[in-house]
Write a structure and sequence with these properties.
- By secondary structure, the chain is α/β, with parallel strands linked by helices.
- The protein folds into two domains: 13-402, no CATH class; 411-499, Transcription Regulator spoIIAA (2-Layer Sandwich), CATH 3.30.750.24.
- The chain is 63% helix and 7% strand.
- It is built from 22 helices and six strands.
- InterPro entries: SLC26A/SulP_dom, SLC26A/SulP_fam.
- It is a multi-pass membrane protein.
- This is SulP family inorganic anion transporter.
Length: 504
């Protein structure tokens, strides 16, 4: 009998190879655009994309999601570069990567699924608003204010002023054209959409700029090796700064949450292996550790590239590793091509990306069905715009915890007065200190000259503050000369049930 043929080592190489080319074409303009918007050399965006493909791509976790520089961290990176300098960025990314590694090894990845979706969506909405405002300045060739709120408040005047400048108006028109191309690309026939919209928009804007010799700024090219600047001893000396530690924590939490939420979304797109969250967090940490050592941008899983990978038919991790190889070959062999790309075109790509971060379609249904969650989303976004990224997220998390605590402490107090005998009060639900004022107001309004029977057997939870307050109220009511308040607790009811006795 003939021996069975040996199974091929890479049975899905054809599908993965084709998908990797698609992801490469999607990632290329986004890597460059995110880097420029973050205030770092364009090549550093490619470095992060390469690391995200080759390093994180080789590791286990989520099989099909793709990592690289993300628009969601652009605002935070820009603030870090402005506050601490480009030389310290590598230290921040390295520290964040090591924290992610530690959290993954301690199996904390799954806990990120407990973060309120409203906080995450509010975070992305706030980032999107600041990103759009900042890139509109860049599209007009203007310098943007540092603060997020100033970016928005000063934007109308800046855009109005650009209308009187032919150079600024040309730059703004090229950026607006890029947004229009990207927005309309999804409505083209399927064959035309084989070329990713972002790449098509950049190529078209570059061609228009060259043919008509438009007076617009283009990407500055430093060379791949010239852009890589590993952090030195002086940069590590700033680690003790409290503000830098806060930035590291913000990078860690936001990058981890974005990556793991992206993994959950990607899992819904395919039928392959599910994400192992702790291992995915380790992969993200390893990638960011390498990015930090190279002085590059932080990386996260990116839903745009990941969805393109799935839709292109990828089957294994090979597609994302190959996409990193294509980025490396481009950066090594064709770096001069970056110098032809107009900056307004990259700004237009990021304006479009920022718009997609704002959950406009889902907000109205959320307001109708879960108004509290909608408030959390809006407050988180507003806090990020008016304060900063880290404190805005903390405000959103605190509000989500407070809302959950308030909802969980639902309690009901029913009073029955038959006119004769004791007044009967029944307390059910979860009695916590959050509901204590309302409970005491009702009990203290009961007649002082009547005996009271307070039944607590319907409570699922009674915290220490409530128990103490109820005992103190009972003592005060009994001291007025009436019969002692009768308290029936859950334990008493259970004892009565076991013995067959019925409380009177």
């Amino acid at each position: 009998m003939r021996a069975a043929e040996k199974a091929p080592r890479f049975p899905h190489l054809r599908q993965d190879f084709a998908a990797s080319l698609v992801v490469f074409l999607v990632a290329l303009p986004l890597c460059v655009g995110v880097a420029v918007a973050s205030g770092v050399p364009a090549e550093l965006g490619l470095v992060t994309g390469i690391v995200g493909g080759v390093v994180a791509g080789l590791m286990r976790g989520s099989s099909l999601q793709v990592s690289g520089p993300a628009a969601g961290l652009t605002v935070l990176v820009l603030e870090a570069v402005q506050d601490f300098g480009l030389a310290v960025l590598g230290v921040i990314v390295l520290a964040a990567g090591l924290l992610q590694l530690a959290m993954g090894l301690l199996k904390l990845g799954r806990w990120f699924r407990a973060v309120s979706v409203s906080v995450v969506e509010g975070m992305l909405a706030g980032i999107g608003l600041v990103l759009i405002a900042g890139q509109l300045y860049a599209a007009a060739g203007l310098a943007a204010p540092a603060a997020g709120l100033d970016k928005i408040l000063q934007l109308p005047g800046a855009l109005a002023g650009s209308l009187t400048s032919p150079t600024a108006l040309t730059s703004l028109a090229l950026g607006a054209g890029t947004v229009v191309v990207m927005a309309g690309w999804t409505h083209l026939p399927r064959r035309a959409r084989a070329v990713p919209g972002a790449l098509a928009a950049v190529l078209l804007a570059t061609a228009v700029s060259l043919v008509f010799s438009l007076p617009v700024a283009t990407v500055e090219v430093h060379g791949l090796l010239g852009s890589i600047q590993p952090p030195d001893a002086g940069a590590f000396g700033q680690v003790a700064s409290l503000s830098l530690l806060g930035t590291v924590l913000a990078f860690t939490l936001i990058a981890s949450a974005e990556s793991l939420f992206s993994a959950a979304a990607v899992d819904r797109m395919h039928d392959g292996p599910r994400t192992r969250y702790d291992q995915e967090l380790v992969a993200q940490g390893a990638g960011n550790t390498v990015c930090g050592l190279l002085g590059a941008l932080p990386m996260t899983a990116v839903i745009v590239r990941s969805s393109a990978n799935v839709q292109a038919g990828a089957r294994t991790r090979a597609s994302r590793v190959l996409h990193g190889v294509w980025l490396l070959l481009f950066a090594a062999l064709l770096p001069g091509a970056l110098a032809l790309i107009p900056l307004p075109a990259l700004a237009g790509i990021l304006v479009h990306a920022g718009w997609k971060l704002i959950p406009l379609r889902s907000f109205a249904p959320l307001w109708r069905e879960h108004r509290g969650e909608a408030v959390i989303l809006a407050v988180t976004a507003l806090a990020i715009v008016t304060v900063n990224m880290f404190e805005g997220v903390l405000i959103g998390l605190a509000l989500a915890v407070a809302k959950t605590a308030w909802t969980a402490s639902h309690v009901r107090l029913e009073v029955m007065d038959k006119g004769a005998g004791p007044v009967q009060a029944f307390l059910s639900g979860n009695a916590t200190f959050l509901r204590l004022p309302r409970i005491l107001d009702t009990l203290e309004s009961l007649p002082q000259d009547r005996p009271v029977a307070l039944d607590l057997s319907g409570l699922h939870h009674l915290d220490h503050a409530c128990r103490t307050a109820l005992e103190n109220w009972a003592a005060r009511h009994s001291a007025s000369g009436t019969d002692q308040v009768r308290l029936t607790a859950a334990a008493e009811t259970e004892t009565d049930a076991r013995t067959g006795a019925s409380p009177d």
